[in-house]
Amino acid sequence: MSTPNKVNPISSILLSALTDQVEEKSIVWLAQKREKILLSEKEMDFFMAFSQASRYFKNNPFKLSEEQFQEAQSFCEGLRMDLWTQLQAARIYLLLQYPAPNFDSWKQTLQKLFETGDMHEIEALYSALPIMPFKDKMVGRAREGLRTNITLVFDAVALNNPYPSKYFDESAWNQMVVKAIFMQRPLFRIQHAESRSNKELANIIIDFAHERWAAGRNVIPELWRFVGPFINSENFKDIEKVTKSEDELERNAALLACSMSDYPEAKELLISFPEIENKIKSGTLNWNWIGEQALALA
Asked: Could you give the CA distance from residue 133 to residue 8 in angstroms, rounded to a whole number?
């Protein structure tokens, strides 16, 4: 029998929060399954519990106290357990109990879950990437999740998840952002967008915008966030074009991108819109606001 996992501190937070908001019989079931998983170390016991969790937990919002949220942040910055459901939280709790003596066995077990799980089970697995064992070796699996066109699964990797910004290389990061743009996902929910911005991504986005415009289509305003730091003589005309758009949200996004730039003409362009410049300086016009407005109009 292998040595049990070192207790993941997130486990205690999950259990404490679940105990406060679900029926006692659900917590009793969870404790029984945890014990069985740890004692037997059999995949089937784990798989059965992971699947059967839906009988005891619902897709209700998973509520965290401020203290619980901050404690989770201290162990994994950016972890948004407050956006999970109770069922997600219960499944991830079970996931953290399964013994992982080495990466090969862990990978094989997860592979079976990913191959047989339903959409919500797979969502839970991808949401748990930043806190699961051997997370630094799960990049390939994370990228696999981005190949899907199932929004729920794609979002579990790309949005409200600290994993991509920490573990993806530039190529993987760029592919994720571009697909998020193509799928018209809320980009403001991608964590650490500014710190992972790069010139190659800006160039890809400019090319994408040109293709959309040539086809008589618009682009989502948020994408200019990834161009702003890399405005130059070649793409400035594109930014300038957007500031003349009939769509106010597009104009605001282009000017917000200018505020991120050191390119002199971008600075001058922003100055020519003093009202917008003041909103940017005061913080009332920011990328979260742009994203929220775009989402509301979608």
From this structure: 9
CA distances from 206 to 171, 224, 228, 231, 269 (A): 17, 9, 11, 10, 19
Neighbouring CB atoms inside 10 A of 273's CB total 17
pLDDT in tens, 258-293: 999 999 999 999 999 999 999 999 999 999 999 999
Structure tokens at 227: 């161009």
- Going from N- to C-terminal start, the domains of the chain cover 1-149, 169-298
Residue 61 phi, psi dihedral angles, 5° rounding:
-55, 140
For residue 278, the Cα-to-chain-centroid distance in whole angstroms is 31
Question: Residues 167-189: pLDDT tens digits?
Answer: 999 999 999 999 999 999 999 99
The span from the CA of 19 to the CA of 24, in Å, is 7
Residues in the chain, how many?
298
